[in-house]
Fold:
Amino acid sequence: MDARVGQLKPIRTDQLIVADMVEPGSRVLDVGCEEGTLLDYLGRVKRVDGRGIELSMTGVRAAVAHGLSVIQGDADTDLKDYPTAAFDYVILSQTLQATRDPRGVLLHLLRIGRRAIVSIPNFGHWRMRLNLLIGGRMPVTESLPFAWYDTPNIHFCTIRDFRNLCGMLDIGVERALTLDGRGRVRFDAGGTLANWMGEQAVFLLKRG
Structure:
């Protein structure tokens, strides 16, 4: 590797939880992979055959500079070009809310991969509700750090919303965890308090 290539960002706690759901030696597609931190970790630790797609050319260049197989692409328009069952896992980490067609993207993830791992911020968290109720303003938090006027997020949902969508699309939830704002596990995302207490959630999904 070129000595001028900088270090990748440290892997986030929520990304480690995603990585823990991936079987060693799997074929993995990371959609919205940024500069490839998770892909790099999966390659080194889980020995996966990893590929990535990233909208930002800055992210693509950083990933390629570190020897990762990443191309520029848009989840909303380019996933349709991937063949069916081409991967064991397709990962979409903290990106679904930024897509124009979350339903269509989710269906493509489960077409392309035998399983999908999706993480989302939870707009139903009690702090979000309290902020709207008392302050009357769109909340800014660790997991949703942007002001309403410059956020890339265009489709907010709650954990309950996401699980309902999976049910509508006949998508099975094999595992679901809620996380706090720093990405640390709180509890199972299927419990009654998950929608109130989880700031983020990670889902391991399979076709119904």
